[in-house]
Amino acid sequence: MTKKAALSASDVHLFYGQKEALKGITLDCYENEITALIGPSGCGKSTFLRTLNRMNDLIPGVTITGNVKVNEQNIYAPNTDTVELRKKVGMVFQQPNPFPFSIYENVVFGLRLAGIKDRAVLDQAVEKSLKAAAVWDDVKDKLNESALALSGGQQQRVCIARVLAVKPDIILMDEPTSALDPVSSAKIENMMMELKQDYTIVTVTHNMQQASRISDRTAFFLNGELIEVDKTKNIFLDPKNQQTEDYISGKFG
Amino acid sequence: MSKPKIIDKIATVIIYAMAGFIVLILAGLLFYILGQGLQYVNWHFLTSRAESFSAGGGIGIQLFNSIFLLVLSMIISIPIATGTAIYLSEYSSNGRVANFIRTAIEILSSLPSIVVGLFGFLIFVINFDIGFSILSGALTLTVFNLPLLIRSIEDSLNSISSSQREAGLALGLSKFETVTHVIIPEALPAIITGLILSAGRVFGEAAALIYTAGQSAPPVDFTNFNPMSITSPLNLMRPAETLAVHIWKVNSEGLIPDVVAVSAGASAVLILAVLIFNLLARFIGNRIYSKMTGDK
To answer: What residues in A contact B170, CB-CB < 8 Å?
Structure first.
């Protein structure tokens, strides 16, 4: 194995109050790969994804043990700056959630707050990010119009551009296409394949065809446990675990 | 016709009738007050001093006092209300402290304004020895206005979807940056609408001011801009009868022969001002929203 783990979780437990939602997850996600997290609803895959940029910290009553290393740094160490962490580990949500500002302002939002005022730098970042998110041709003539006026698929890609603009290393995607039509989904899938040249992507998906199409590795979650993780091909063609096989073949879920 | 259908028809008629009834009352009131009063409103009436014994007095000073008091109490209450509302909506985790504050706000908002006025009289006028003054009045109006203002700002903030907060935080914004750069800008149109509506309420308030800002309007010299001078309109320590208090005063103990004219005229001005506040609230709110979101 020559690839380097960009992200490495070991023995992560997560409790909502008394309820144990993640029961000791150990998982590595490699650089420039797409790792897909699959499993039935409530299996903990989204919860796990949100431990990777500490978004679960925002929910009252959550306790997390174990550690998650991003670039060899444990992000659950007491001295971690979550604000810095989330700049390195960006996140795309299930529902497109653009700010009700113009497309341009959405994309440069993070940069402006980081204090960048140079118009040329901002313009360049907008073009580069929107191109990388495969939405430049759709919106280049209406950058000053409201992002809310776009279609759902375009909004989602603008949201991805907004994440790309702050130059993360890792992008977490929480069912990024589940609210979109098939054409938009296909565009986002293609874009993800492009993006993995430069980024490490972890995506949660309900759609097993999608996982098999785009991911390099697939992790199967069930009831808060990581049942099996392997190269996507192996998971879909030759799963080691009976439960994985049952889920893949549609016996439950 | 089936039974549910008949009930549906009847209910629709009743609901429409009720709404129509309310509109009728409001329109009647508006037309009556404006119809009675507008004939007395002219430039002289709006700008000249009130008379104590003879006819022909105006409401100039009272009108200025109302506006000055409004601005002052807004300057005091907006920062406090915004801070409290941000705490309640964004920072408190709905624990005991937040519930205590909410209960306090609810109780405060149900106090009759005359009680708030007497409280202001005891605390600001007597205890702090500020006397009957614009300052006492503004502080009392703040007490009167805060609960509703906090409520309306908190509601505006709460109406912003939590996905926007997540989007901000996930982009690497701190909590405070998320509040100031995402939540507040998005809620601004609603916040401003709330502010202006509460300004209308404050503008028309009389009972809370009778014992705090006082019932007399000593002459002021509008060319005197020294706030320390007692005749300066900007002086915070001078007694300042407002328009609403003036209406109450001339009606209950006015000695002028043209009581009816003055109170009708003043009421018309008051109603017009409140009406303008409301229309302005809608206009500004919509404008800011469309400007911010970039759709023209």
So the answer is: 53, 55, 86, 90-91, 93, 163
